[in-house]
Amino acid sequence: MRNKKISQDNQKIVTDLLERVENMDSEEYKRILSSMAQFHNYSYFNQFILHCAEASQVAGFKQWQKVHNRTVKKGAKAIWILAPNTILIPKDEYKGNLKHVEIVEKNGSEFVRLVTYKSVPVFDIADTEGEEINKNMTTRADISLKRLKSVSRSLGYTVNTKALEIATGGYISEKKIILNSNLSEVENVGTLIHEIAHGELGHTDSKDVTSQSLKEQQAETVTAIICSIYDVDRNSEFYLKCWKLDKNINKSFARIDKAVKSISSAIEKLIK
């Protein structure tokens, strides 16, 4: 992301993280998808950090006390995640290229807005005690095909159905999605999420150079995460067993995470 930098103090966290990601096998990939669904509101770097820490639900020291009426146990070990830290620098004092930064106005003056990252401690629920709370981090909802079509429209897609071969779930062309009328509603819900994922990943852009196999890997990863978040019945096991993980998978995850947040945000808006 433009203007977002990771401080030198946090470089080891990121370096170790990416090394683990690049060396993962299919089984760990499946476990990471579960963590990405569990912590889908976090950045993808933090999703991996929490995955590696085997966390289930996290919050800061004071948040556990003030929001959840729980206290962190003595001697508990913090999990250090990366939090954005915004810095405003007077425009006339900034030494870099103004073409590549965001300019904001405050109190009649112009500032360069930069975002860096700092390490902040959080604690897993297992290291706290107090009032019982719901350990489920995600918002669960039944997503019908009718509701998901509304989500599609809110994102700018049109959805139609027609008879296709059973082996073909559907397809997307630009902003137009076709579903197979020969499939069940549940199957079409999963397929529609998959096709929206292709669109949100930018796969329909004529300038996109992603290979077809990697497009399918990315789209089904997004689908698996969204279906996990919202309890949609979707079997991605075949994909996970057959995928050969991209050597630059960390770049794929950034793209995947962006698509997941786009789709889940549209679903949450509709639910509310």
Explained architecture:
The protein is an alpha+beta fold and 272 residues long. It has two domains: 1-135, no CATH class; 145-271, no CATH class. It has nine helices and ten strands. It has helices at 11-22, 26-38, 44-52, 61-66, 145-154, 185-200, 212-229, 237-242, 249-271, and strands at 4-6, 58-59, 70-72, 79-90, 102-106, 109-124, 128-130, 158-162, 170-173, 176-180. The strands form three sheets. Strands 1, 2, 4, 5 and 6 form a five-stranded mixed beta sheet that branches. Strand 9 (170-173) and strand 10 (176-180) form a beta hairpin. The radius of gyration is 21 Å and the shape is globular.
Quick structural overview:
With 272 residues, the protein is α+β, with helices and mostly antiparallel strands.
SSE inventory with pairings:
Blueprint (H helix, E strand, L loop, with lengths): L3 E3 L4 H12 L3 H13 L5 H9 L5 E2 L1 H6 L3 E3 L6 E12 L11 E5 L2 E16 L3 E3 L14 H10 L3 E5 L7 E4 L2 E5 L4 H16 L11 H18 L7 H6 L6 H23 L1
Parallel strand pairs: 1-6, 8-10
Antiparallel strand pairs: 2-6, 3-7, 4-6, 5-6, 9-10
Keywords:
10 strands; 272 residues; disordered N terminus; alpha+beta; three-stranded mixed sheet; 2 domains; 9 helices; five-stranded mixed sheet
